[in-house]
What we know:
With 163 residues, the chain is mostly beta strands. The protein has no helices and 16 strands. The strands form 3 sheets. Strands 1-2-3-4-5-6-7-8 form an 8-stranded antiparallel barrel. It has a 4-stranded antiparallel sheet with strand order 9-16-14-11, with no helix packed on it. A hairpin with a 2-residue loop joins strand 6 (51-60) and strand 7 (63-68).
Amino acid sequence: MIFDATVLGRTLRVEVRRSGGHYHVSLDGEPHEVSVSDGVHGFTRLRIGARSHELGLEREANGYRVSFPGDSLSVELAPATRGGALPARRDHGPARVTAPMPGRIVRVLSQAGASVIAGQGLVVIEAMKMENELRAPRGGRLLELLVREGQAVEAGTLLAVVA
């Protein structure tokens, strides 16, 4: 099964293959071995590699509300765009990191000029009493970091530029 999942404004291509009681899951081409079982108090136990997570899953119109200790988020699911192949990656030109929602910057995790790797945390934004770490979309140099701790931001505000 191939579909696109959107979380906090970022869309990932997800491919899922079931093999017995386990799943082979690919997120934008990165493979993960996943198993699912019943947890306690109505939660679902999700094991990804060697790490185990207790999650609440609630069906929403376009996907799921995923709840975990101290936080929750919506995951919007859609049929994969035409073709089963991954979309071509845009690794040329600067990558812009923007605020997915209005909130307040609670932590700055890097500094302008620093080398970053794909997935490295750049800033933590608090919105609706939840903290969300925004990560580098790819490796490179953090050209600009345009926010400071305590700063209020609107959805779509440019926070950082990675090249």
